[in-house]
Design a protein that fits this description.
The protein is mainly α. It folds into two domains: 37 residues, Homeodomain-like (Arc Repressor Mutant, subunit A, Orthogonal Bundle); 138 residues, Tetracycline Repressor, domain 2 (Orthogonal Bundle). Helices cover 72% and strands 0% of the residues. The protein is elongated. This is Transcriptional regulator, TetR family protein.
């Protein structure tokens, strides 16, 4: 049910997807969905929460380098690789925030902030060590994450460049952004 909802919401948008449409995709009556989920809002929240939990767990499993330059490279490569094969989840996580209730929004925003803070800490450490030059770490964090997340909107495995090559190109752009 969640997989069908994820695909439909990514394709049509949250507002255009009804519980009836999700039920039809799964092959059950709409009323049957309510045995598993109380409402569509909860379903959206659970899809976003699962994505953020998976992201934070995968990131926590990495041994973070102490050197900010190496940490920035690791973060860049991780972010691109993690998101590159999750276009539906990324689309929903960024484009459907507006459809969350205030409570659900606050919960997802807190998870996003936890992830973003990891990059901000790398940038602050890099500035303190004299490796990076940037005006505002938080703004730079937002710009870098937006840039890196965009890869999944255009990258295709069968394309001209491999994911490793794309990571290298983006890493070079990230380094230039922070004047590394």
């Amino acid at each position: 049910m969640r997989e069908a909802a994820r695909r439909l919401i990514a394709r049509h948008g949250f507002a255009a997807v009804s519980m009836r449409k999700i039920a039809a995709e799964v092959g059950v009556q709409a009323g049957a969905l309510y045995n598993y989920i109380p409402d569509k809002q909860t379903l959206l929240f659970e899809i976003m929460q699962a994505h953020m939990e998976e992201l934070l767990t995968a990131r926590a499993e990495l041994d973070a380098p102490a050197d900010p330059v190496q940490a920035l490279e690791q973060f860049t490569r991780f972010h691109i690789r993690f998101h590159s094969n999750r276009p539906d989840e990324v689309f929903i996580a960024y484009m459907e925030l507006r459809n969350l209730t205030p409570e659900n929004f606050a919960a997802i925003e807190a998870m996003r902030r936890t992830y973003e803070d990891q990059l901000t800490e790398i940038l602050v450490a890099g500035v303190a060590a004299g490796h990076f030059r940037l005006a505002e770490p938080r703004v730079t964090t937002m710009a870098l994450i937006a840039m890196l997340t965009g890869v999944n909107t255009w990258f295709r495995e069968e394309g001209r460049l491999s994911l490793d090559e794309v990571e290298g190109i983006y890493l070079d752009m990230v380094r230039r952004t922070v004047a590394a």
